Amino acid sequence: MTTTETPATTMRERFVHTVDRALDDQANLAVVLADISSDRFEQAQARHPDRVLNVGIREQLLVSTAGGLALAGMRPVVHTITPFAVERPFEQLKLDLNHQGVGAVLVSTGGSYDYPFAGRTHMAPGDVALLDTLPHWTIHVPGHADELDPLLRTALSGDGLVYLRMSERQNSEPVATGPGLVRVRSGGTGVVLAVGPMLDPVLEATANLDVSVLYAATVRPFDHRTLRAAAKLAAPDVALVEPYLAGTSAHVVDDALHDLPHRVLSLGVTRDNELRDYGDIEDHDTAHGLTPKQIASSLRAFFR
Amino acid sequence: MTTTPTAERTEFGYDDLRPLMARMTGDEKHDNAATSTLDVLWVLYDRILSVSSDRVDDADRDRFLLSKGHGPMAYYAVLAAKGFFAPEELDGWGTVGSRLGFHPDRVLVPGAEIGSGSLGHGLPLGVGTALGLRARAKHDPRVVVLVGDAELDEGSNHEAIAYAGRAGLGSLTTVVVDNQSATHGWPDGIAERFAREGWAAHTVDGRDHSALYRALTDTRHDRPLAVVARVEPRN
Q: Which SUPFAM superfamilies match (chain A) (predicted)?
């Protein structure tokens, strides 16, 4: 074995570990890289030179190659940093995957502002909103490496379109074991839906609030039924806390509650400004109103 | 001899292609854009490609990827001539309910390996297909991509040309139908661009079936092949 038996700690390490092993067991699996993380796949590439492909810094080719691999009967895994996985080759995702009617597993790392010191060029808080303009994508936003693993394994063995959004930040404990929403806390005045790594800040923010907290590690397809049930038990007022563009999932919440008078509060990365600043992740949380304290303040005003 | 295609007929020759195209255009005189691909498509489907209407799902078939999805009348005519669908389907092309659009959709058109229309997607898809066949140890099937000279303006092609050369994709062939329609042109010729990236490259008369055949069969195991098929300038 070329990889360690110790469970990896970061999502990115777990992703590499799981795919490295899966290449040995699944003959139709192929990994396509554009230099990013290629050092982490060196051993796998030595074992499977025809199935671990690094196309260099060519992100259009990265996605198109995945489309061609799928047309030839392979299950491609595509991986790079978020803006170069979704934004730069967006038409390739739309045409070379969706329009050709083929599947792929697209795995991004770096999330919204996981590399704040790198500036705007390395931030992509619009990734989920962009992919949400295309049909048929399953979108996972795990909040813990232990959640990533089963979601990834299911994706590798399937044949559909899957986006797996990895982040540097994790919650202290894994919660989700599958695609559905998980009720983490029960309360009477409304529902807070926390997505991926926003769960810990939301739990801290709601410690003294009488609200239900639901958790999503999978946002598409959306689990309408669980949200609807929670809204009926508490009140049809839903605060959505997402680690990417604010309001990205507001339309699916509206769909779930379409026949109920309801209110929605959308928290997430702000849309009205390009934040030209560096610093660390916590600095950007503050700028977008996403620290536990700021979330608590927004929730108190909303559920008043 | 030119014959009239009918429902009963299943075998068509080169002389039938223009009447088949006329079912879409309404007359038998076509501008150069509509027919620029006709000869190379015929040579490919008649003499080069190992594919047929009963093998569209055969993993060992050759793949032809029409990247230049504009003006697909010649492509549809050749597919109909080779029995992938009935010539009658040509009559209603582009209308609601037809499988034949102004840009081909692989999900709808029998025998179409890719949906195309937005330029610059076919060659990168062809690279992935060739890599996939190699990964599956299928070393016989060829992957042939047809692009236009103006389409080469798209940067995505140059990502594919460079990488395919370095990866030594001997199963991959690009046919560039050159009607000199690229706005800024390709100084020193298109073939030179491919050769510089490690491709075998030929420039031939795109109306000369024998020359096309010779060039398209000059494959190498260790490098991809580019065939520049020159036809009449667009204007």
A: Thiamin diphosphate-binding fold (THDP-binding), TK C-terminal domain-like
